[in-house]
Amino acid sequence: MKTTLNSLALFGGTPAFAEKLHVGRPNIGDRERLHQRLDEILDRNWLTNNGPCVQEFEARLAALADTAHCIAVCNATVALEMLVRAANLSGEVIVPSFTFVATVHALQTAGVTPVFCDIDPATHSLDPKLVESLITPRTSGILGVHLWGNACAVDLLTEIASRHRLALLFDAAHALGCTHEGKPIGGFGAAEVFSFHATKFVNTFEGGAITTNDVGLAERLRLARNFGFADYDKVVSPGTNGKMSEISAAMGLTSLESMEKFVATNMSNYRSYRRALSGIPGLSLFTYNEAERCNYQYVILVLDEAAAGISRDFLVKALQAENIIARRYFYPGCHRMEPYQTLFPNAGAHLPATEDLSRRVLALPTGTAVGDEQIKVIGELIRFIVAHGREMQTRTA
């Protein structure tokens, strides 16, 4: 434990950890089973184009999401872009700014105007009370985000979308294996998009998937991911190369087999952080509804600068010096990134909760690379930094 300012890495001390602890260091499942699958792929000599591993992966995901259809693709960004087009979105779509920028890019690249809606400070997701006020004759849809694995206001958004005859889509990149009112996330709205990027708790090295109960939409998406080919030499619609490879699907299947272990580790880490950070002034953990299934893949800390006596950014800087690579999610908000900052220069005036939260949130390392002992050290460091925050900030100034 560090007991003096000079022992902190920020002031020349040895970092608390020799190796960097990342928010999303990849989880690796059973290597032997993965190697076996890779050998089978090479023996079949079938590397892509809807191979057996992709088909099995899609079936497993559809069962997990309790949906009729699953379309696996090369990554979740392409999945979002394909879905925006396949759902025939146009004009304007209401979306949060407090999300990863790919959510909004998917609209912009399809020629759809994103209309930024503020969030509920308690849930960090779209505030349904504000959504309705943004609907215009140009609005074609709502794109909600299930942030941190917690479902957004599904029921209210469904009611609003139905009443105004709007498409309702969800970015579920954080929400694999999670539920809303006991029902698996994946079957809400017209479709939902999952991410299997390397940093996600279940990964395919790189990948994504779309789940839906709409047979027509599913068919359009399957065409879209393969250039619009309906047969060997018959193209019936525009499309792209969005296919998932067999090797990625093999990693996905192997990850799914260890999914419960990964979730158990994440839950244990979350509870360890809750103990380690208890009682620190100005700090609170984003809490999960433990009556629902959750993957607990994010440990989100919200800082009140006035109560803590230290800024979020200074805390991140001090932790990163100790090789604790805390991240500022989702800073500074999509509306302050390009091209949106130029297109909508005054958007921040209508997004007070987004502006506030983006300055106060940080994500802490978790996953199978982190355990109780590391979390105790992280907790002690944060407690020490907050206790001496004003002195530290004066010294660095």
What would the keywords be for this entry?
Aspartate Aminotransferase, domain 2, Aspartate Aminotransferase, domain 1, 397 residues, 2 domains, alpha/beta, single chain
Secondary structure blueprint with pairings:
Elements: E1 21-22, H1 31-44, H2 52-65, E2 69-73, H3 76-86, E3 92-96, H4 101-109, E4 113-117, H5 128-131, E5 139-145, H6 154-163, E6 167-171, E7 179-180, E8 183-184, E9 191-195, E10 208-212, H7 215-224, E11 229-231, E12 234-235, H8 246-257, H9 259-276, E13 283-285, E14 299-303, H10 305-308, H11 312-321, E15 324-325, H12 340-343, H13 352-358, E16 361-364, H14 372-387, H15 389-396
Parallel strand pairs: 1-15, 3-4, 3-5, 5-6, 6-9
Antiparallel strand pairs: 2-10, 7-8, 9-10, 11-12, 13-14, 14-16
Quick structural gist:
The protein has 397 residues and is an alpha/beta fold. The chain is 38% helix and 16% strand.
Shape: globular
- The Cα radius of gyration reads 22 Å
- Point out poorly predicted stretches: none
CATH architecture of the largest domain: 3-Layer(aba) Sandwich
User: What is the number of domains?
Assistant: 2
Mean pLDDT: 97
- Helix fraction? 25-40%
What is the highest CATH level, the class of the largest domain?
A: Alpha Beta
Strand order of the largest sheet: 2-10-9-6-5-3-4
Main sheet overview: 7 strands, mixed
Distance between the termini: 25 Å
Number of β-strand runs: 16
CATH topology of the largest domain: Aspartate Aminotransferase, domain 2
Kindly report the oligomeric state of this protein.
single chain
CATH superfamily of the largest domain: Type I PLP-dependent aspartate aminotransferase-like (Major domain)
Helix and strand composition category: alpha/beta
Strand content: 15-25%
In DSSP terms (H or I, runs of 4 or more residues), the helix count works out at 15
